[in-house]
Design goal:
about 45% helix; TIM Barrel; about 240 residues; 6-stranded parallel sheet; 8 helices; two-stranded parallel ribbon; alpha/beta
Length: about 240
């Protein structure tokens, strides 16, 4: 095979792989800055995506209140339209609220105009319901392009990713889920960084998604860290 063709193929493969890493890997900063975690190894933040979702959003609020923990909930605009009461309950409980687009598309496949519609529309719904500006944005599936992050910043939103992927969306064993999260937090501590845990209080396809496994795993984690040197913080501690 022609050496130039081989070289071109390798370069092309590396370029595709690099783009995929930058677009989907949660801790990548190649396409633009995104908040991930702090440098204090004993700090951990809980983040919940795809809500609001009855009854699990309210049950999580009760659990977090019991442990005096602030979190951030990245909400889907279309769900907030249907359950504004849940969005207000999150804010009233002292938690942060973030933009998770109107309908949860994978933004790397959308036109720039659609990206802006998704982000600006969700901003408008949240600000109308909550009566205050929103400052944080998490791209659905973690997918972003340079223009996605630029649009977020233009709309006054700070992109937020994560560095603990719990895979709670398809978990069936809450104990195994808690063990997996703890293992990844321990890994981050060895690497000298705090932990930003991706969890879900809802599901992007419909309201009413069962998140009982996430709820039970979160309870185990909070109880296991009670009285320890682990500090539960909200992501605004890392601004």
């Amino acid at each position: 095979m022609n050496a130039k063709l081989v070289s071109a193929g390798l370069i092309s493969g590396l370029a595709v792989g690099g783009y995929a890493y930058a677009a989907r890997w949660p801790t990548s900063q190649l396409f633009g800055r995104a908040l991930t975690a702090g440098h204090d190894i004993n700090e951990v933040a809980f983040t919940f995506d795809d809500g609001p979702n009855d009854p699990y959003t309210l049950q999580l609020l009760d659990l977090l209140a019991q442990h005096q923990v602030r979190a951030i909930f990245f909400l889907i605009g279309n769900f907030v339209r249907r359950r504004p009461d849940l969005a207000r309950a999150i804010l009233k409980a002292g938690h942060l609220v973030g933009n998770h687009t109107m309908s949860h598309p994978s933004l790397i496949w959308e036109r720039p105009s659609r990206v802006r519609e998704e982000l600006a529309g969700c901003n408008a719904v949240l600000e109308d319901v909550l009566g205050q500006a929103v400052h944080y944005f998490r791209p659905p599936f973690g997918s972003r392009r340079p223009d996605v992050l630029r649009t977020a910043v233009e709309l006054g939103l700070k992109p937020v990713m994560w560095n603990v992927t719990a895979h709670d969306w398809d978990a069936t064993d809450f104990r195994a889920l808690a063990v997996r999260v703890q293992r990844l937090v321990t890994r981050n501590q060895r690497l000298g960084r705090g932990s930003n845990i991706l969890l879900h209080d809802g599901g992007h396809l419909e309201l009413g998604t069962d998140r009982s496994v996430t709820l039970a795993a979160t309870k185990i984690l909070l109880e296991s860290w009670a009285g320890s040197n682990m500090r539960k913080v909200a992501i605004d501690a890392w601004n």
